[in-house]
């Protein structure tokens, strides 16, 4: 009997009515058969997508079946975990039920290249309210329902996660999870980069549970609709497949750091770093910072030089759409290769290398460089960025007028600002910045860096 021919009926211990589970290639169906004393018998069926189904398990000793899945958000603001458990009802043999459960799990995980029961290293900042977010209904219960093994590290100071992963025993974990904003992700990545075997260390998948103001990485991994939803992010940890992405090397004062998302100066750095004291506002603080910056309208005192690959927006768009189409056609067969090992690759561009570099001559209001597309749910900063094209997306806004800036941010949540005539957009191999004043802000992945000369590739 095939898995799709098998229907398993159990009697729920919680409500004492029968439900029937049925796996098909399309979805996992749950039929509720409700019969209250003195009332009519009622039945209803709902389906669970394969992606949202976490676990199907059979306990032979107790003859119970447990089904755990994520219920998508509809009227509720977030998705939620549902766990159903009941004794097998009917004449199905234990061997049949066990084979059915094993076949369902095989289809959910191994057949899609996903490891089940992952070993997770979870970093939590208990001082930022993230502990309650993790231990509530949305995150830890999802990991446990999926059978994950958990190692929890509550960070006690800045740099704690950096020091922990720098000495990490490789092979002990299938993924690293951060319950935080983007800052802790930045710290973990740089800790891995300082490991004795950084390439192997950086091959460990890193997955965020959104608990910050921007949550850019979460938005880019699971989408604008779910990017702030902890349960959806936990589901991604359990069911997601590893993907490769570019990292940026930032050198400043002889020190090399990694950046995974963005570097900003001028207005875009000010609206982030100068509103740190307003974190209680959530991501609304960025809009407030933007309005304040438009009022003050301070130019960014820097010299920007770039090793440009292209600045033709039409060419970028066509290349982007072609690569998206190509990736969609091969996504099912795509496999992540075995990790390299050894030291980080050497830098390609030296600080005194000027051949083929161009300098932006106009006064600058802001520079925003990185990859995305999203840096926040209200700002698609890099709409034609790709995770693995080996290039840096750089948007530069010259000093124009306040009206131009207000027009440019209209539709920014959908990337419409990309086409605004005054906004210059580049794909570059590298860029460097030389401050022309001592006063200014440099934000790297949302973290404050010294406002000093630096280079990125």
UniProtKB/TrEMBL annotation:
<feature type="domain" description="DAGKc">
    <location>
        <begin position="115"/>
        <end position="254"/>
    </location>
</feature>
<dbReference type="Pfam" id="PF00781">
    <property type="entry name" value="DAGK_cat"/>
</dbReference>
<dbReference type="InterPro" id="IPR017438">
    <property type="entry name" value="ATP-NAD_kinase_N"/>
</dbReference>
<dbReference type="GO" id="GO:0016773">
    <property type="term" value="F:phosphotransferase activity, alcohol group as acceptor"/>
</dbReference>
<dbReference type="GO" id="GO:0005737">
    <property type="term" value="C:cytoplasm"/>
</dbReference>
<protein>
    <recommendedName>
        <fullName>DAGKc domain-containing protein</fullName>
    </recommendedName>
</protein>
<dbReference type="GO" id="GO:0046512">
    <property type="term" value="P:sphingosine biosynthetic process"/>
</dbReference>
<dbReference type="GO" id="GO:0001727">
    <property type="term" value="F:lipid kinase activity"/>
</dbReference>
<dbReference type="InterPro" id="IPR001206">
    <property type="entry name" value="Diacylglycerol_kinase_cat_dom"/>
</dbReference>
<dbReference type="InterPro" id="IPR050187">
    <property type="entry name" value="Lipid_Phosphate_FormReg"/>
</dbReference>
<dbReference type="GO" id="GO:0016020">
    <property type="term" value="C:membrane"/>
</dbReference>
<dbReference type="InterPro" id="IPR016064">
    <property type="entry name" value="NAD/diacylglycerol_kinase_sf"/>
</dbReference>
